[in-house]
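Q: What structure does this chain adopt?
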Amino acid sequence: MKKLFSFLAVALLALVLVACGGGSSENGESGNNGEGNGENESASGEAEHTIRAGIGLNKDHPQYKGLLKFKEIVEEETDGAIKVETYHSGQLGDDRSMTEALQLGNQEVTIPSTAPIANFVPEFSVFDIPFLFPNEDVADEVLQGDVAQGLLDKLEEEDLVGLAYWENGFRNLTNSERAVETIDDFDGLKIRTMENDLHLEAFKALGANPTPMAFTELFTAMQQGTVDGQENPYATIYLENFYEVQDYVSNTNHVYSPFVFLMSKQFYDGLNDEQKQIVSDAAKEAGQHQIELNREANAKYLEDLQEEGMEYTEITPENRQEMVDAVQPVIEDFKEQIGPETVDGIMQAVEDAQSE
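A:
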């Protein structure tokens, strides 16, 4: 009799486990679609490779939407042989730590701005030269040119593969102290910058007190008054809710900031030729999608920032020229560090693009 009861108890437990489905969700798929925490299913079949792709910005930013486009293309074109897990909001770390993870083979993809990449390949600081690009059309042409594409090749020396340029956009200033209209208004402002020496020195030349810190720490720092302000494209400013702790925004357009789609060289070298071509093409196609979304978003988000109560200041060409003049000595100081050939090459490319 005891054996019978034991048998019935085991059978009942098995039925309960089957009914519960081993933790599957209601639609029969384990986990979710891979947005945000990396839990996803491959398109079909068993995945040969998994790409963990992380960024610092949140899930509403055009950069993350571009990353989802990359995921869609890669999983479809490889028929699920390559699975892409996507992580936003700094879930895998800040730009520098994720880039280092790529070098070690502990992560496969990240998409930082060029400024933190300069810590690994100094020539990328050329894109941080203040007021280098007058508009987006010139930036597009220069980034597709030989000098910019040659910089991507240099990443392989650092165990990184640069597959494409994406867009962060023109960086603009916000702060909680006062409207910035002229160079004098920068005086003494504590401005968070990326960990990039050229950015730091440029803001010092403008009269500000620059403070480098990780992006993931920025909102709290502004909220607590550790810094007065920051500089980023409008999409980032809005989507990170900086208007909650910032009162003023100015269209300084002081730096056009590209993103670089980075892949771990260790991972890339482990792909076959067809897979390499697929991820490379996907990075470029998704990048074009991301750039289109980013430009639409930045125009819209400037309006949204004003609706949220931020005071917008339009900087006149005359006042901007004073800022341009103030940072010229900084550019000369950094030319040797960046590489005279790179600086001259990019500036010539800008001049050529403007003359067409």
